[in-house]
Amino acid sequence: WGEERLTKNISIDGAPFPVLEALYPLIEAICDYECFRDDRWAWIDSICINQEDEHERPTVQLMDRVYQQLTRTTIWLGTGDANGDEALRFYHQLTDL
C-alpha cells in the first residue's frame, strides 16, 4: 500500500498473481499447515483489495466491518529477526490488558 514494493508471484487457479515479497512466507505457511486450509479463512487485505483499481480502492473503508465479523484472526509478524522475542513480549503485554 502506498509506494511500490517488491513482489513475488504465487499461483491462483493456475495463473500467476503478484503478492508482496514480505507476504510470500505467509502464503507458504498457509500451504504447509492444515489449520490454515479451512476455506472460511481467506482475508488478506493486500490480496483481496486491488489498490491499483480505483473502483476497489474505496473498499478499504469497509475493512473495519470485515474485521468485526471475523471468528478467528491470525496476525503475521513475518519470519522473525533479532527483535522477534521483544515483539512477542509486547504482544503478551497487550493481551494481558
Summarize the structure.
By secondary structure, the chain is an alpha+beta fold. The chain has helices at residues 24-32, 45-48, 63-68, 84-95, and strands spanning 7-12, 15-20. 0% of the residues are buried.
How would you characterize this protein structure?
- The chain is of the alpha+beta class.
- It has one domain (7-95).
- The protein has helices at 24-32, 45-48, 63-68, 84-95; strands spanning 7-12, 15-20.
- The chain has a two-stranded antiparallel ribbon.
- This is Heterokaryon incompatibility.
- InterPro entries: HET, HetReg/Transcr_Mod.
- Pfam families: HET.
- Residues 3-94 form the Heterokaryon incompatibility domain.
Number of domains: 1
Structural class: alpha+beta
Instruction: Provide the low-confidence segments as ranges.
Output: none
Number of strands: 2
Mean pLDDT: 79
Q: Report the β-strand fraction as a percent range.
A: 5-15%
Walk me through the topology.
Layout: E1 7-12, E2 15-20, H1 24-32, H2 45-48, H3 63-68, H4 84-95
Antiparallel strand pairs: 1-2
Keywords:
alpha+beta, 12% strand, globular, 97 residues
